Protein: transaldolase
Organism: Lupinus luteus
Amino acid sequence: MSFTLKITPSVSTPLFSSVSSSIHSTKSTFSLHSTLFFNSQIHHNPLHHLQIRASSTDTASTTELDAVSAFSHIVPDTVIFDDFQKFPPTAATVSSSLLLGICGLPDTIFRNAVEMALADSECYGLENSDTRLSCFFNKALVNVGGDMTKLVPGRVSTEVDARLAYDTHAIIRKVHDLLRLYNDINVPPQRLLFKIPATWQGIEAARLLESEGIQTHLTFVYSFAQAAAAAQAGASVIQIFVGRIRDWARNHSDDPEIESAQLRGEDPGLALVKKAYNYIHKYGHKSKLMAAAVRNKQDLFSLLGVDYIIAPLKVLQSLKESVASPDEKYSFVSRLSPQSAAKYVFSDEELVEWNQTSLTEAMGPAAVQLLASGLDGYASQANRVEELFGKIWPPPNV
């Protein structure tokens, strides 16, 4: 998911002056990636129903946004920097790409959170430069995440270093470190999720963390095998990127899972969300399913009933501006439901207890390539954050 941060000319503080010029000029834009989603308890408590609602002065009609919100929790593809008043997020993700954006925006409200991280005495005292930069990175993520929890009512998901994606124990140690830092600033674990890549090692880490009561958010899911394994691991949130799978299918071939969906006349990204939803609900897994990279209103209409749909601002705006009168020809209906999931038939091969070998064998070229691409992108962003922190440390007055 992406959003744009426009930088207007301003007087930079000493901390960020060198960073701003090294990233972009003052008229440049950043393309950042983040994820927003709702508190898992909203299904059970109507007072916490945080689904987006578009107000209407005409009591005889409703907007399309109102109509679709009756079936799924529609999540704005943005963070508080962008269109906050129009589509205020109820929860957020703090990530390496977000830190890059903060470093390039000297007037952002999160500036102090990063400054405090770079001035932290615990990190400051570490002699090894790599360890010190990692400490600064963790502190900055948590400081910004802590500020986020004061601005949104739902959960904040914190990115776990993608460079650890193939090391289960390193992922768990990183989450424990982040959780300790959140505890130090009095953010309760119920407000937090930890965003982990859906490698086998990441899925195993999620299993162990969930057994401790730590909520996880598995991302980069591009195959049914990953989704099913994540559900079996008890991940709190499973995120599938609809549009990215579609884009891959347009330019590649020889992926059995994608070709099977196409032979049935289905879009492969939408088909994966539906299949994963049916699996989760038919077999009673606790996971919530999130459809991301939704590109248009038809995608959204096709997924009504899935737990969360992340929609671009242009789609939300179109839904908000479109009136859905009671007698209109188009009928908004749930495409996914626990009732329909109960009727879905899975093959014996799909109902295995997933392990590393079966997962590796079941992941087709689309999932392998898209997962690798996602990990490379996240790792590159993390490296850039540490490089920037290395350039601006020590901060003034330290």
Summary: Residues 179 and 189 are 7 Å apart (CA to CA).
